[in-house]
C-alpha cells in the first residue's frame, strides 16, 4: 500500500536506477540462487514465489464452517439464552433427565409439544418456544462434550423437527413477521437499528437455515428414512406449497423489501445465506449442473463433452505470479554487479527475448502501477520462467527444473459461426475437415436455432423477476471492501451492531472484526446466488440466461465487479477476520479465554480465507459469463481499464482463479495494442498454456474482424428484441392462444384448479357417478403408478 509507506508494485514509485525513493539503504543481496529462494521477500501483494494455495473449489465450505458463519460474534450471549428457554420447558415435562438420555418416542413427544407451543398469540411466549426449538437445532450442546457430538445431535434433532412438521410452521411465522407493518414502521423511524430490532426474525431464520444446511448434507451413514425425508423436503422446498410460492421467492421478496427501505431491520446476512442454500439444495450445485449438461446434450443428439471441466480445473497448477518490487530491486542490483565480472553480458541481453529496455504499457491503459509490472515482466528472472515459458538460452542443469505437460489441458473448439466466417473471408475449403473435426455445438446454439424455428408457436410459462437482481447488486456494493461510507445507500449492519456501542478499545476491535466478517459472508452468499442462477438459467434456456445477464449489465454489474477487484486482492484473500474461540460450536463447549488485542490481530493460522477466495472466483466467473461472445461488453472491459486490475489478481497462486482472470484478459488482448502484448509476454504465454483454444481465433495478434468500432446500444437492443420475443411467446398469457397452451401434467396443480361445472352436470351428478365410476372396475395401484 502506498499509504502505509511500503514499496509495492501497485503503489510505489521507482526512481533513477530503480531504487525506491523512500528507502536509502541498499538491500542485502543473497549469495546464491538457493539463498535467494529461501529469502523471498514480502511486499504488499504477497510473496512473489509463494506456494500454491491449497484451495479446493466446491459448492460451499465445510459443514462446520457454514454453520459457524451463520452467527455473528455479537450474538454470542444468545446461545445460553436459547439453552435456558429449552431447559425451563424441558424440566417441567421430563424432570431429572437430559435430552441425550431419552428414547426416540420421548424425543418426538417433546418436539410435538414445542411445535404446539408455536401456535400461540402471545409474542413473548412464542419467542421462548422458538428459542427452545433453536437450541434443539443447535444440537442441545450443553449435553455434549465435543464438536463431533454436537454435530451428531444437530443432524438427529433437525431430522426430528422436519418429521414433526416444524419447517412448515416456521415458514408461516416468517411470513407473518415479514408482513408485520408495526415492526417495519418502527424500524424506519429509528435513527439507529441494532441487533435487538430483528430478534424474532433472526431466531426463525436461524432454525430454517440450520434445517436446510443440515438436511442437504448427504451422509452415507444416514438411515433410509432420513434419505426419503431429504428427497421429499427437497421437492417441497422448490414447489409452491408454502403460501402458494416457493420459499426462495419469499426470501427474494425480503431482499427487495429491505433494499427499498421499507424494512431496514431485516437481518440480511441470514436471509441471503438461507436463500443461497435453498437455491443450492433445490436446483443443485456445480457437479449436478455438469451432469444435467451431459444429459441435455444426449437428449439433443449432440456429441459428448470433450472433457470434464471440473476435473481439468482441479488438476491444473497455478502459474508464477508477477514479481514483486523487492525482486525487481534485487535483480537490478545483481545485474549491476555482474557487469564488472562478465564481459558477455551485453551479448546475453541482445539474445534475450525478454529484454525490457523499451518495455512499457500501452498509452491507452494509463496506469502507472501496471507500467512497473510490465517493465519487470518483460525480463523475468529464472524463478518466474519455470511455470510459463522455458528460458530462451540453455542454462546449467538444475535439479529443481519443472517438467512440462506434453499437451494443453483443454481440447480446442470451434463454433458453426466461426466456420462460416472463415469460409466467407478466406474463400478456401482446404481446412474444412480440420475445423469440423473440432466443431463444438453448445446447448445455447441449439436453443437459439429452435427459437428461430418456433417464432410463430405460441406457448406459455412462468415469468422471471428482475428487481431481485438489482437488490442483490445494491447489497453487494454496500458490502464490497472498496466501498466508501458515502456510497453505502443501505445499512447492511443491522444484524451485527449491538444495542450499546463498544466503550473500550478491545470491544471496538472485536466489533471491527465482526463487521468485516459480516461483509465477507454477504459477498460470499451473493456471488454464489448470482452464479448459480446464471448457470441454471443458461442450462434451462439461453434466453432466460440472457434476460438475467442483460439486467445485470444494465445495473452496472461489470464495473461493480471490477471495482471489487481494484484493491489489494492478496490482502483480501489472506484476511484474518475471524476469532476462532468465538466460532460455534467451540464457544459453547469451552470456557472462553480472555481476549487480548494481540489475539484479535493474530486471527487464525490458515494460509488464506476460504470464503474470500470462493467469492473472488465466483465474481470472476460471473464476469466471464456476462462478457463471453459479447463484443460490446468486452469493449466495456477495455474502456474500464480492467487489464491492470486483472493482472494484479494473477498474483494469487491458485489455478482456478488464475484461469478465469486469464480468460478475461484473453478476450481483450486484441484491443489493448501491440505494445501491451509485447510488454506482457509472460501473461500472453500463460493464456496460451492454460486457456482453451478456439480454432481460427486470432486473439494474440489483433487483426481479427471483431476489432472494429463497437455500438453498445445496437448490439444490446438486438439481443433485447430476441429476449422480448421469447418472453412474450412463453410468458405473456394475454398474447397466447389458449388452444395452443401445453397440457398441465402436474397432479397437484390440476387438482388445485377451480373448475366451473355446468348446471346440467350438477343435476345429473348421481347418474354420472353410477355410470362412469361405480359401474367400471378401477385398478387404483396402476392409476397411481
UniProtKB/TrEMBL annotation:
Query: Domain of life of the organism in this record?
Result: Eukaryota
Domain Far11/STRP C-terminal residue range list: 434-765
Start and end of every Far11/STRP N-terminal domain?
Answer: 50-358
Gene Ontology biological process terms in this record: cytoskeleton organization
Q: Which InterPro entries match?
A: Far11/STRP (IPR040185), Far11/STRP_C (IPR021819), Far11/STRP_N (IPR012486)
Species name? Astyanax mexicanus (Blind cave fish)
Name of the protein in its database record: Striatin interacting protein 1
Per UniProt, the ranges with Basic and acidic residues bias are 340-358
- Mainly localized where? cytoplasm
The annotated regions of Low complexity compositional bias extend over 317-326
Lineage of the source organism?
A: Eukaryota, Metazoa, Chordata, Craniata, Vertebrata
Mind telling me which GO cellular component terms the entry cites? cytosol
Q: Where is the composition biased (Acidic residues)?
A: 359-371
Region (Disordered), start-end ranges:
317-386
Family from the record: Belongs to the STRIP family.
* Free-text function comment from the UniProt entry: Plays a role in the regulation of cell morphology and cytoskeletal organization. Required in the cortical actin filament dynamics and cell shape. Part of the striatin-interacting phosphatase and kinase (STRIPAK) complexes. STRIPAK complexes have critical roles in protein (de)phosphorylation and are regulators of multiple signaling pathways including Hippo, MAPK, nuclear receptor and cytoskeleton remodeling. Different types of STRIPAK complexes are involved in a variety of biological processes such as cell growth, differentiation, apoptosis, metabolism and immune regulation.
**Localization:** Cytoplasm
Question: What keywords are annotated for this sequence in UniProt?
Answer: Cytoplasm, Phosphoprotein
